[in-house]
């Protein structure tokens, strides 16, 4: 009888341990799922319309095209043979399973800030996904950049491994926001200007950058920052819904909203806003005044083509047709995005909050380079905007690049 009782007690203890282990596994997987969303892993590792996380999406860089790897756990073409230690080394040091160097197009300079428990949780989540057998194409890089060991010199100069360390002088919300922006969110990958070797320019952190023929705006939200006029609540609204009274997300940012930020906890979005509002910019010198003839021509084109949605004073219809007056995209010193939207049009991201996307038509078929430059100049120089003039040669060059199409 005593043996039976002891057996039952031992069995109950064992069952409890198994249930606890399962609960811990579930918690790790859920944590990993959330961090995978926070890092927008699906955006980079999924070509449009193809299997999630199976890789082979082409990333255009100034040095050539890099194809993202398969991060499902297929044993031949994915991570099926990778251990947790292998995955940690990739995230923390930028090293593949075989020890070869990964290219920093994979944002390990940001992921290195993630602690081991977060990285292990992502590994646990990815291991639950359906494995997909899909071999990626060879990267299209010139010699000697096609030799991975060349990245060692880049790492010695620009890469500093190490997990995020909270600032004891800042609030818990600020530190959480800093971790998300600088770590898994890797926001400076798009929003920071790069030097000739593809590393972030010192002193230009989150002040705007260019990639894949788009100009990402300044997202510093303190004094003189690109989002200075945005409140914390408006930053949260934009990240959660893809729109606010100032702007709407499209293009690459639409992927960030769709795959990542709309799924994040409200507290984390508020933490990101707290951090961004603490980042200050620098006062910009007034741009050269555009020629009167260009402004007159641009005003006429705007009246004919733009006022129906954006209104004659550029105020737009907030949360439907974004205001142009005071817009960070419009005032960006780099006019690439303004030119491209005029040429190709744009489509606001559909989200859980706003499932019906809004679309701006393209005008590249209708307006020539001089006309696109004139209306862009007018918009960037009216209603208190200080974006500056746009030259027809800038339009011509971008039109040509877009005509070449994606790789």
UniProtKB/TrEMBL annotation:
Organism: Shinella granuli
Lineage of origin: Bacteria, Pseudomonadati, Pseudomonadota, Alphaproteobacteria, Hyphomicrobiales
SUPFAM superfamilies reported in the protein's UniProt record: Cytochrome c
Listed name of the protein: Mono/diheme cytochrome c family protein
Cofactor(s) demanded: heme c
Binding site for heme c 1: 41, 44-45
Any Pfam family matching the protein: Cytochrom_C
Keywords: Cell membrane, Electron transport, Heme, Iron, Membrane, Metal-binding, Repeat, Respiratory chain, Signal, Transport
Cytochrome c domain residues: 27-130, 172-280, 293-383
Main localization (coarse): membrane
């Amino acid at each position: 009888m005593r043996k039976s009782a002891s057996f039952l007690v031992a069995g109950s203890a064992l069952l409890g341990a198994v249930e606890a282990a399962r609960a811990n596994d579930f918690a790790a997987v859920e944590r990993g799922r959330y961090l995978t969303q926070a890092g927008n892993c699906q955006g980079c590792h999924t070509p449009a319309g193809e299997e999630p996380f199976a890789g082979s999406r082409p990333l255009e860089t100034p040095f050539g095209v890099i194809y993202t790897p398969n991060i499902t756990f297929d044993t031949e073409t994915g991570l099926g043979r990778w251990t947790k230690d292998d995955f940690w080394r990739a995230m923390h040091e930028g090293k593949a399973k075989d020890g070869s160097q990964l290219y920093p197009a994979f944002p390990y300079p940001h992921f290195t800030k993630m602690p081991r428990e977060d990285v292990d949780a992502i590994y646990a989540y990815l291991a639950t996904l359906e494995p997909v057998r899909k071999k990626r194409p060879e990267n299209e890089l010139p010699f000697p950049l096609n030799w991975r060991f060349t990245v060692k010199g880049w790492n010695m100069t620009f890469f500093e491994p190490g997990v995020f360390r909270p600032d004891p002088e800042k609030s818990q919300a600020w530190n959480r926001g800093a971790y998300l922006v600088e770590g898994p969110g890797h926001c400076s990958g798009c929003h920071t200007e790069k030097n000739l070797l593809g590393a972030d320019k010192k002193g230009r952190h989150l002040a705007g950058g260019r990639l894949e023929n788009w100009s990402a705006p300044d997202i510093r939200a303190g004094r003189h920052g690109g989002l200075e006029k945005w409140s914390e609540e408006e930053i949260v609204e934009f990240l959660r819904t893809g729109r606010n009274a100032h702007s709407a997300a499209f293009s690459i940012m639409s992927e960030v909203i769709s795959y990542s930020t709309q799924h994040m906890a409200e507290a984390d979005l508020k933490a990101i806003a707290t951090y961004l509002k603490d980042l200050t910019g620098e006062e910009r010198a007034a741009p050269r005044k555009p020629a009167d003839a260009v402004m007159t021509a641009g005003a006429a084109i705007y009246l004919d083509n733009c006022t129906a949605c954006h209104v004659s004073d550029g105020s737009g219809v907030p949360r439907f047709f974004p205001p142009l007056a005071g817009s960070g995209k419009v005032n960006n010193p780099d006019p690439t995005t303004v030119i491209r939207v005029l040429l190709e049009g744009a489509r606001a991201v559909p989200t859980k909050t706003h499932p019906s996307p809004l679309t701006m038509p393209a005008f590249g078929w209708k307006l020539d380079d001089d006309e696109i430059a004139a209306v862009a100049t007018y918009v960037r120089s009216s209603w208190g905007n200080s974006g500056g003039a746009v030259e027809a040669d800038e339009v011509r060059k971008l039109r040509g690049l877009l005509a070449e199409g994606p790789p």
